[in-house]
Amino acid sequence: MRIYCAKDYYHASRVAANIISAQVIMKPDCVLGLATGATPVGTYEQLVRWYEKGDLDFASVHSVNLDEYRGLSAEDEQSYRYFMNSHLFDHINIDKKNTYVPDGMEPDAAKACSAYDEIIRSLGGIDLQILGLGHNGHIGFNEPGSAFEKETHCVRLSRSTIEANARFFDSIDRVPREAYTMGIKSIMQARKVVVIVCGESKREIVRRAFFGAITPEVPASVLQLHNDVILVGDEAALADCL
Predict the structure, then answer these.
(1) Could you give the C-alpha distances from 94 to 29, 57, 108, 208, 232, in angstroms and in order?
(2) DSSP class of 131
């Protein structure tokens, strides 16, 4: 595992964007695994700025997102498809037909999940997977106790995750209780994984996830077994790693 300690969120976002840019430049038709939430927004903003300067070309890139709320359409402002369009896809030259997000409107969970796994396989797997890190150690929507061998599946969100995501909704009651998410196995099969963490509130879980026991109770801890993981964070989040 490589660790990059940045001064602040802006610097960490730039470091992560540099890693993604290198992937796109080295392999223009690469498959990017993308994440949502507050953490990667700065990274996506930096990628957009470099694209606008003419430094990056996403025309041949494919992307697969980690997850989507079950029951939300792509047009819903709280859906992850809407998030990706707003923060990245609408601002670069990626072909949206080559961008994939689990189908939150598919009522048949088994069908939705198997279809998504087949998409990933048909693309030849993920070259670089971007991850955030939940306060309880979740990656994607793989909550504590998640089986490491699972691929895409439907998950019941924990109370802590619902509360953490409530800030994006009008009220906590509007936060969906279920989501389709890539499983731990799906994430571990990516050729490279980049984890972005920022803020003092992530300090303890960073220590447990990357320097503690490997256990399903801290889903991100399994990344210790991956052969190409890059941890990018600010000084506050990585204080115990320095």
Answers:
(1) 11, 8, 29, 37, 25
(2) E
Question: Are residues 204 and 97 in contact, defined by beta-carbon separation less than 8 angstroms?
Answer: no
Tokens of 191: 């050729």
The pLDDT value recorded for residue 160 is: 83
Q: Which amino acid is at 122?
A: S
Does the pLDDT of residue 220 top 90, yes or no? yes
Structure tokens at 213: 């026991």
- Domains recognised in the chain with CATH numbers: 2-133+186-193 (3.40.50.1360)
For the annotated catalytic residues, the residue numbers are 67, 136, 138, 143
Examine the pLDDT at 170 and tell me if it is beyond 90: no
Determine contact, residues 141/155, Cβ cutoff 8 Å. Answer: yes
The pair of structure tokens assigned to 33 is 């695994």
Residues 128, 191: contact at Cβ < 8 Å? yes
Rounded distance between C-alpha atoms, residue 158 and residue 53, angstroms: 41
What size, in residues, is the chain? 242
3-state DSSP call for residue 153?
Answer: strand
Classify residue 157 by its DSSP letter: P
**Model confidence, pTM:** 0.94
Identity of the residue numbered 236: A
Which backbone phi and psi does 138 adopt, to 5 degrees?
Answer: -75, 150
How crowded is the C-beta side of 200, counted as CA atoms within 13 Å?
0
Mind listing the pLDDT tens digit for each residue in 126-147? 999 999 999 999 999 999 998 8
Those residues with Cβ within 8 angstroms of residue 100's Cβ, 6 or more apart along the chain or in another chain: 62, 63, 64, 65, 116, 119
